[in-house]
Design brief:
Elements: E1 4-8, H1 17-24, E2 28-32, H2 38-48, E3 52-55, H3 62-66, E4 73-76, H4 86-91, E5 95-97, H5 104-119, H6 122-130, E6 149-153, H7 157-168, E7 172-176, E8 187-188, H8 191-197, E9 200-203, H9 217-221, E10 228-231, H10 240-248, E11 254-257, E12 277-279, H11 288-306
Parallel strand pairs: 1-2, 1-3, 3-4, 4-5, 6-7, 6-9, 7-8, 9-10, 10-11, 11-12
InterPro entries: CtBP, D-iso_2-hydroxyacid_DH_PdxB, D-isomer_2_OHA_DH_cat_dom, D-isomer_DH_CS, D-isomer_DH_CS1, D-isomer_DH_NAD-bd, NAD(P)-bd_dom_sf
Protein name: C-terminal binding protein
Family: Belongs to the D-isomer specific 2-hydroxyacid dehydrogenase family.
Length: about 325
């Protein structure tokens, strides 16, 4: 019988060989949930009296965590922590970890891909062409990307990498920075200035109580009518009803949304069904390399904690033991 038991709430890949191998090598059994609703997860945690919880997208609430008094760590298979009850974990001495640097390249690349798609009308031309409308003049006149301005909301790790790549392509880059971080060649500005100057506004901030729906009617009215909103951060940051209204009013040219709220979103309603909006299924983080790296590291975080060692990337200031 295994010494420790770990509940995996959900995952977004085809197999679990990496997780099983790392855990089994340390006498840890993986309990895989088949449903990710709160009641099902709490029941499974209680049944197996789990020592740790690993989670991808499922909501890990107080009810789920408290179902087993043995829980020592909640480890996020990803970056954002908005699906974990951090306050409860901290109050009970339970470590919360993530992998804040595992998919920086992927998200930066995906953001650039969406910028290119907006600028060069890739989705529109593809749809029209496949529908039998092979006509260059079917779309609006496009502008050269080089020399345009990219405004990055959030100059963190991903924001800085995006800025570096964008500058290599000839884009002017400006940014807001709540943390005070700066970067050579990137002008740090206030939000109003960023919105007024940017041809592309890239959201790269976490979802918190402060940032929830922080991009709404007021912000869209300050954007150029020729500008695009690019969101590869979290869907909750954007007021999507306000975005739909802004698009209808011509306050911005379009949007590219890798993240929505809720997920999956209703593709039959605005803004998602607007032909000026590109939707991808929260795919910015994905690559073979990024997933392999993240899965192994998170599994090792759990092992380290269960063996009494403080793992990497503890986000709530606690230590093991």
């Amino acid at each position: 019988m295994a010494k420790f038991h770990v509940l995996l709430t959900d995952y977004a890949w085809e197999e679990l060989e990496i997780e099983k191998q790392v855990l089994a090598d340390n006498d840890v059994q993986l309990i895989v949930a088949t449903a990710k609703d709160e009641d099902s997860l709490a029941a499974l945690a209680k049944e197996h009296q789990v020592d740790a919880i690993m989670t991808n997208w499922a909501q890990v609430t107080e009810k789920v965590i408290s179902a087993s008094p043995n829980v020592k760590i909640v480890a996020r298979l990803g970056i954002g922590l908005d699906n974990i009850d951090m306050a409860y974990c901290t109050s009970k001495g339970i470590l919360v970890t993530n992998t804040p640097d595992y998919c920086l390249i992927e998200v930066a690349e995906h953001t650039l891909a969406l910028i290119f798609a907006c600028a060069r009308k890739v989705a529109m031309y593809h749809h029209d062409t496949m529908s039998g409308k092979y006509d260059l003049s079917a779309g609006p006149i496009m502008r050269r990307m080089e020399g345009q301005t990219l405004g990055i909301v959030g100059l963190g790790n991903i924001g800085m990498l995006l800025a570096k790549k964008a500058k290599c392509l000839g884009l002017n880059v400006i940014a807001t920075s709540r943390s005070g971080k700066t970067m050579d060649g990137v002008e740090t500005v206030d939000m109003d200035t960023l919105l007024a100057k940017s041809d592309y506004v890239s959201l790269l901030i976490p979802a918190t109580a402060e940032t929830k729906k922080s991009f709404g009617a007021e912000q869209f009215q300050k954007m150029k009518p020729t500008a695009y909103l690019i969101n590869t951060a979290r869907g909750a940051i954007v007021d999507h009803d306000a975005l739909a209204a802004a698009l209808a009013a011509g306050e911005l040219a379009g949007a590219a949304l890798d993240v929505q709220d809720p997920e999956p979103c209703d593709l039959t309603i605005a803004p998602y069904n607007d032909p000026r909006v590109i939707v991808t299924p929260h795919a910015a983080f994905v690559s073979f390399e990024s997933l392999e790296n993240m899965r192994g590291r998170v599994s090792q975080q759990v092992v380290d904690c269960l063996l009494g060692k403080t793992p990497e990337n503890v986000r709530n200031g606690l230590t093991a033991g």
